[in-house]
Amino acid sequence: MGDHSHGGPDQPGTVAKAQEGELDKIQDPGLPPHRARLTDTDPRAAKRAERHVAILFAISIIGTVLFFVGYFAVGHTESIAELRLQNTLLGLGTGFAMLGIGVGIVHWARTLMPDHEIAESRHAVRTEEDRKDAEAIVNTIIDESGIQRRPLIRNTLIGALALAPLPGVFILRDLDLTKESAGQIVDRLRHTMWDKGVRLTRDPSGTPIKASDVQIGSAFHVIPEGLMEAEDWLNQKAKAVVLLMRLNPEDLNISEGREDWHHNGIVAYSKICTHVGCPVALYEQHTHHLLCPCHQSTFDLTQECKVIFGPAAHALPQLPITVDDEGFLVAQSDFHEPVGPGYWERG
Question: 34: which of 6, 149, 252, 276 fits an S-S bond (Cβ 3.0–4.6 Å)?
Answer without folding.
Answer: 6
